[in-house]
Design a protein that fits this description.
The protein has no helices and eleven strands. The protein is mainly β. The protein starts with 13 loop residues before the first strand and ends in a 6-residue tail after the last strand.
Length: 175
């Protein structure tokens, strides 16, 4: 099971600038927007590399065909967000809030996502590999066609989570 990868433009149109509306068909590198407040932000066809969005409040955001590389997303509020064909690689998501998010064809690879909240989220065709998921909250989450491999889930709260075609490989489940 592999999620559909982001459909990124071969050459992003611009070196973009992020604003409250979002960003489309662009690449953004080495930028910082800590604490940004932009509900319903839209990222489509974008690559963000080493971008800081720590503490940003992006509830109901939409990420489509987007890749985030080595971004600082600690304490990012993505409650109610929708992600389609998105990839986050090597990012920091410590304390990120993805409650009630809808994630389809998403990949998290090598991310630090300890203390993140996925409560009530829907994950479909999601691949999570090599991530630190210690003390994460999955209460009431719905996971379908999900592979979690090589992750530390120590102390994770799975109360009321529903699993369909979910596979855990080489994961730590202490506590």
């Amino acid at each position: 099971m592999r999620p559909d990868p982001p459909d990124l433009p071969a050459e992003p149109a611009t070196a973009g600038a992020l604003d409250a509306e979002g960003l489309e068909d662009a690449i953004l590198v080495d930028a910082a927007f800590p604490g940004l407040v932009a509900p319903s932000l839209r990222l489509e066809g974008c690559v963000l590399e080493r971008v800081v969005l720590a503490g940003a409040r992006l509830s109901a955001a939409e990420l489509r065909d987007t890749e985030l590389r080595a971004c600082d997303l600690a304490n990012l509020d993505l409650r109610g967000a929708r992600a389609r064909r998105a990839r986050i690689a090597g990012g920091r998501l410590t304390g990120a809030r993805l409650a009630e998010a809808d994630l389809s064809d998403v990949e998290l690879d090598g991310c630090r996502a300890d203390l993140a909240t996925f409560g009530g989220a829907t994950l479909e065709r999601v691949l999570i590999t090599g991530c630190d998921l210690r003390d994460t909250d999955w209460q009431g989450a719905r996971l379908s066609s999900v592979l979690i491999a090589g992750c530390d889930l120590s102390g994770a709260d799975l109360t009321g989570a529903r699993f369909q075609s979910v596979e855990l490989r080489d994961c730590r489940l202490d506590g």
